[in-house]
Design goal:
Elements (H helix, E strand, L loop, with lengths): L1 H20 L7 E8 L7 E7 L3 E11 L2 E5 L2 E3 L6 E3 L6 H27 L18
Antiparallel strand pairs: 1-2, 2-3, 3-4, 5-6
Length: 136
């Protein structure tokens, strides 16, 4: 029983500090694109490390009328056959921060192969033509 009362006291203090300070909470987050086009309608999936607390796997990136959309992993409810988000944020600013980090990681993963392929190496010499040369 004391464990629950201590936990709620910590939550109350955090809530009071958040309301009193009226500031947004910042967490260290790092997104890694795991797979491109894993299923129909999904551009990529990502794993997101949230501080040293946890890693959220199977975050999906989709394209819709509003641009890139980040979808959290979902669980199928056994009795209703409906899906619900497995992970959700209680603070809207944290969700927005999460979405921006995932979208940036996706855009970087798309641009990085293009940037690496277009720039030839400085130490590479141009190839000589190996075709037949008929002089007259």
């Amino acid at each position: 029983m004391p464990r629950t009362s201590n936990r709620s006291a910590v939550q109350e203090n955090a809530a009071q500090e958040n309301v009193a300070g009226n500031s947004t909470v910042q967490l260290a987050m790092e997104a890694v694109i795991v797979e491109h086009n894993p299923e129909r309608g999904v551009l990529a999936s990502a794993d997101v490390k949230v501080g040293d607390i946890m890693t959220v796997r199977n975050v999906r990136i989709r394209e819709d009328d509003y641009g890139l959309t980040v979808s959290m992993p979902r669980t199928k409810m056994p009795h209703t056959d409906q899906y619900k988000d497995s992970v959700f944020f209680s603070d809207k600013s944290l969700k927005e921060q999460f979405d921006q980090i995932v979208q940036k990681a996706y855009q970087d993963s798309i641009l990085s192969p293009v940037l690496n392929d277009d720039a030839p190496g400085e130490d590479m010499e141009p190839e000589e033509e190996t075709g037949m040369n008929m002089g007259m």
